[in-house]
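Field log, afternoon session.

UNIT: design team B
ACTIVITY: writing a sequence onto a fixed backbone
BACKBONE:
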């Protein structure tokens, strides 16, 4: 399959974003079969949920690595570089390895399209998922922690049969795809539960938990509740990731690792402890200090529950109400985000992230004014200007609302 090594591999891959979001497992299943089923060459832990799934994935991966396993993680989206999505033994995949995998998966897609086996072009996420599995096969990965992209039941990652699944949380996000009630969203997320495979549940609303447990019963899948008692077995030091909500995520990760251990992938308590207390996961209550002493707290709060978690952290640790630099995608429930977040900040600077999906700051201003009419509000045309406007109001600011915005800000910091 080494028929090409294209310098335009990334251009091809990002070009697939024009096909948008498409649910279903037919494309990914056909493609993986043509590639020889790379997803069957490693064991997996599969992590879904509304919020926290990336943090759990990072924690579990760090613990597996501390235990000495050849491990990998697949997450989305990335902040700056595509390579961030594919981490093997704690390191992002090298550019050459990534380009080689993209080219070979592209060649497989072209073969299938020419034969008429694939009726439509795979999406960016379907193709990226196939690339991840192919990279992990080539690296002889023993076990991978795989984050669900969107939903669960029809997400491209759901071709896996993992050692265990996890559902970290259930809240409102992507309702246009997943449903308008917590029960509907929970059923979509529960689609990752496989027959007989244990599923770990984080802290969930009662109606969501009931829906997921019903699916688990139908599939004879054992349900494991993650809780503070489990966490106390491992951690007597602060978690590496800030925020009270990370205790739920850490408990989910610990439960997943216990199931992995029972299945033959040994993770001793000291490795679990290392994973929870040393993991790095950028953009999640991520405090950055500039050389001149200015600070920015970056958080990927991009839905109402994420905004509420950030607000709780600010009330506890930054009660002086710092300025907020904010951008969001057009499909987000910004009003609910503002209701949670604006009482915890002293001013808001609105901007656009560098993506066509970014919401119009003027519209965001109207929504913010409706929620907090006395709050100082400003608009800046780009994230760099927004940062400076925020720092003019104080030397400590918060940046939130979109992972795309965080990527823009981190790029800006690299230039500072």
């Amino acid at each position: 399959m080494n028929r090409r090594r294209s310098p335009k591999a990334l251009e091809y891959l990002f070009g697939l974003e024009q096909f948008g979001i498409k649910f279903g497992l037919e494309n990914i299943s056909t493609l993986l079969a043509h590639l020889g089923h790379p997803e069957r060459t490693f064991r997996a832990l599969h992590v879904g949920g509304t919020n926290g799934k990336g943090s759990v994935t990072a924690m579990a991966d760090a613990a597996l690595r501390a235990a000495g396993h050849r491990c990998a993680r697949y997450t989305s989206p990335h902040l700056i570089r595509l390579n961030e999505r594919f981490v093997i033994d704690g390191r992002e995949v090298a550019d050459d390895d990534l380009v080689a995998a993209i080219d070979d998966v592209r060649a497989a897609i072209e073969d299938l399209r020419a034969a008429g086996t694939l009726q439509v072009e795979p999406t960016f996420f379907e193709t990226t998922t196939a690339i991840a599995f192919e990279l992990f096969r080539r690296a002889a990965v023993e076990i991978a922690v795989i984050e669900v992209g969107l939903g669960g039941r029809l997400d491209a990652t759901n071709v896996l049969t993992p050692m265990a699944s996890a559902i970290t949380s259930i809240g409102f996000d992507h309702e246009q795809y997943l449903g308008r009630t917590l029960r509907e969203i929970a059923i979509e997320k529960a689609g990752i539960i496989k027959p007989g495979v244990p599923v770990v549940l984080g802290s969930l609303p009662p109606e969501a938990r009931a829906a997921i447990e019903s699916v688990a019963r139908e599939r004879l899948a054992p349900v494991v509740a993650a809780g503070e008692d489990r966490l106390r077995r491992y951690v007597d030091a602060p978690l590496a990731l800030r925020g009270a909500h990370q205790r739920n995520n850490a408990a989910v990760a610990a439960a997943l690792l216990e199931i992995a251990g029972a299945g033959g992938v040994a993770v001793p308590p000291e490795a679990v402890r290392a994973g929870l207390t040393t993991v790095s996961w950028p953009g999640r209550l991520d405090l950055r200090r500039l050389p001149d002493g200015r600070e920015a707290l970056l958080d990927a709060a991009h839905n109402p529950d994420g905004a509420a978690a950030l607000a709780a952290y600010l009330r506890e640790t930054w009660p002086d109400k710092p300025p907020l630099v904010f951008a969001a995608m057009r499909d987000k429930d910004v009003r609910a985000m503002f209701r949670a977040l604006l009482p915890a900040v002293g001013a808001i600077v609105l901007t656009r992230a560098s993506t066509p999906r970014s919401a119009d700051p003027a519209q965001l201003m109207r929504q913010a004014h409706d929620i907090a009419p006395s709050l100082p509000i400003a608009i800046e045309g780009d994230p760099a200007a927004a940062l400076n406007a925020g720092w003019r109001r104080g030397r400590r600011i918060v940046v939130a609302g979109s992972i795309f915005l965080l990527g823009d800000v981190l790029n800006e910091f690299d230039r500072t």
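LOG NOTE: The two ends are 43 Å apart (CA to CA).
NEXT ACTIVITY: expression trials, pending approval
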